[in-house]
Amino acid sequence: MDVSEAVASRRSVRAFLDTPVPFATVERVLDRARMAPSGCNFQPWEATVLTGAPLKALQKVLLAAQPDDPMEYDFSVPGQYPKYKQRLSALGASMYGGLGIARQSDMRAVFAQKNLTSFGAPVLLLSHFPKFMLAAQWSDVGMWLQTIMLLLRDEGLDSCPQEWMGVYGRTIKAHLGLSMDDTTLFCGIAIGHRDPDHAVNRFERDRVPLAEHVTFLGFEGLGFEEA
Length: 227
Ligand SMILES: Cc1cc2nc3c(=O)[nH]c(=O)nc-3n(C[C@H](O)[C@H](O)[C@H](O)COP(=O)(O)O)c2cc1C
Prior knowledge:
This protein is α+β, with helices and mostly antiparallel strands. It has helices at 3-9, 23-33, 52-64, 82-99, 107-113, 135-154, 169-176; strands at residues 46-51, 123-130, 158-162, 183-192.
């Protein structure tokens, strides 16, 4: 699989088969992902990867827990602004529309709760790092996570990034024995094989056109006029 195929075929999978993932595959992907770039080569990423009984034990704890109040970090802020609110609504309409779940239905919350069991994925990577890391390092961790998700495609595997795990950051840190005060629990990556028949893995995903988020300068004479 080339890079373009990996990018095009990755999607956030929200229904997994229970097919186990061998340790060697997970290790190979994470070993290769070490080559992701990071500012100053800090490599600020750290992770705990769970499968089998340890994953089931964590999920049991999560299902019995309450969300953090307040949350350790708030990923929802852009949703207050019209442009981003509209994008979130469009995602909800596509995803829940594909599942046949109406706008006001309680089933939306029921489906969202499936985040806690990572949509049935057999492996969960939990990404965490020292609390003193700032925006630049969070962005480095994002690049590492995307590198992992693309390498997973190369192995025929699928993923779903899960900031939902951050909503239960304190519960997860306590359960894993991570420092409550010195560690940020950023997000999870659910890992496994997609259920190809499930509607939630088949809905159309929107993206804004290039002209709305990129400005090209100086490309006159290089084909810009024809574009
Ligand atoms: C950092 C990050 C966290 C995310 N957290 C969640 C999550 O908690 N639950 C979920 O269902 N999807 C989550 N997503 C998936 C996004 O909704 C998804 O990437 C977006 O809708 C685009 O769809 P696609 O990934 O299928 O292309 C997350 C994505 C990213 C990058």
